[in-house]
Amino acid sequence: MAIRYGKRVYHCGPSETVLEALRRQGVELAYSCTKGTCQTCMLRADGGAVPPEAQAELKDTLRAQGYFLPCVCVPGQDLELAPPDGEAGFFPALVMEAERLAEDVRRLRLRQIKPLSYRAGQFIHLRRADGLLRSYSLASLPGRDRDLELHVKYLRGGRMTTWIFQDLRPGERVEIRGPSGSCFYTEDRPEQPLLLIGTGTGLAPLMGIARDALNRGHTGPIHLYHGTRDPGGLYQKLELEWWATQHGNFHFVPCLSGAEVPRDCRMGRADEVAFAAHPDLGGWRVFLCGCPPMVHAAKKRAYLAGADLAQIHADPFELRDLGESAKSRKSPLPQ
Amino acid sequence: MSDSLFERIGGAAAVDAAVDLFYRKVLSDGRINHFFDDSDLDDQRAKQKAFLTMAFGGPNDYSGKDLRSAHAPLVAKGLGDTHFDAVAENLQLTLNELGVPGDLSAEVMQIAGGTRDDVLNR
Predict the structure, then answer these.
(1) Measured between beta carbons, which residues in chain A are less than 8 angstroms from residue B42?
(2) Which residues, given as ranges, of chain B have pLDDT below 50?
(3) Of the candidates A37, A38, A303, which has its C-beta nearest B24's C-beta?
(4) pLDDT at position A56, please?
């Protein structure tokens, strides 16, 4: 068998695993257990099918993207693997719109020359001309929305957000790479109850996931909890309330952790409100997006409430500076 | 020759049935759950699975040296006999809940108990 990886093609013997073949030919790969347990060596096949046992231990969202474990993969056909990190290309995109959704949230719509193949809820890397790099989740739905939609929250002192909020105009060019991430809907169980909890712009991927589910005919209940501190941060409230009128199985609960709580919102943090309302999550699928402390705590809480770990999809918005041009600076949190 | 403990208890399916019951008990146990505050849930679940496979007499590559190095930072934070006993208690409760017969359950507890000195770095 032939295996394309990066810029080269490697030979894989008849009873050889992909990991053995690549290592034998000098490819440096991270690996550990070599028996399909630790998932350290995971790679992605973009072309060619891998045998089922090479994906048996992976989450369904990873399988859906073509990820597999090369240490237990003896391929039955030629494979084309996703290029190593850092070799995947950036593609230009045009800023179509930079709209204010809330005082500290902007919606970017980006148009690509070459349409991006992605799932709603995944994220992309956005690169400015000078190399500054950040990741943002996708709220748009492929096939339905022509443009990619990102929600950007202002971070005081953040170089990318300052630029987006003050200087970015429609017509400007940026570069994007992706998609990445495993936080998305899969349609294998349309009757399954879904719990979606997001803080701040963690709402963006959750809106994409909810729309994707509704669009694919999901019949189980979909409960979306969005939390912010102040009413102004519930930036898509009207739209989500409209969805709830259109789909009997879609439920939206806006939550406010600050002092001012209008009558149509719930008081408290989104995760607290959600877990109080749904104490038994056995059989549920759970999506968690937004600030890392909430996501990590809610993941544990969902597991203890009975959800399978494989059914919990967490996307903590880490404030990592991804910029090649500035490796150590962090964007400070807003006060 | 009689079947191995692993076969008699139900093999990998028994481990799958036990792992979440057991790990949820450990994470909910106020005597020990602070030792897991900084650990990744998925990684830890995989480790609990490996541990149960070993305790159920199944194929594993647990070594005393691995157990020692993995638990050394926790021992430095105060991990001791009372915590080991608490984990063992959660394992016993899990086996009871699954209806594992007493003789098999005793074998499992004996294997698990045999890791005490390695886990506590003695």
Answers:
(1) 309
(2) 1
(3) A303
(4) 86
Distance CA A152, CA A105 (A): 5
Q: CB contact, 8 Å: A147 with chain B?
A: no
Residues β-bridged to residue A288: A197, A314
Measured distance CA(B9)–CA(A325) in Å, rounded: 57
Q: DSSP letter string over A265-319?
A: SEES-HHHHHHHH----TT-EEEEEESHHHHHHHHHHHHHTT--GGGEEEEE---
ipTM value for the complex: 0.88
Evaluate whether A189 touches A160 at the Cβ level (below 8 Å): no
Domains (range + CATH), chain A: 2-82 (3.10.20.30), 91-182+319-328 (2.40.30.10), 194-316 (3.40.50.80)
According to the model, what pLDDT value does residue A323 have? 45
All structural domains of chain B with their residue ranges: 5-119
Q: Does A56 touch chain B (CB under 8 A)?
A: no
Which CATH fold topology does B5-119 show?
A: Globin-like (1.10.490)
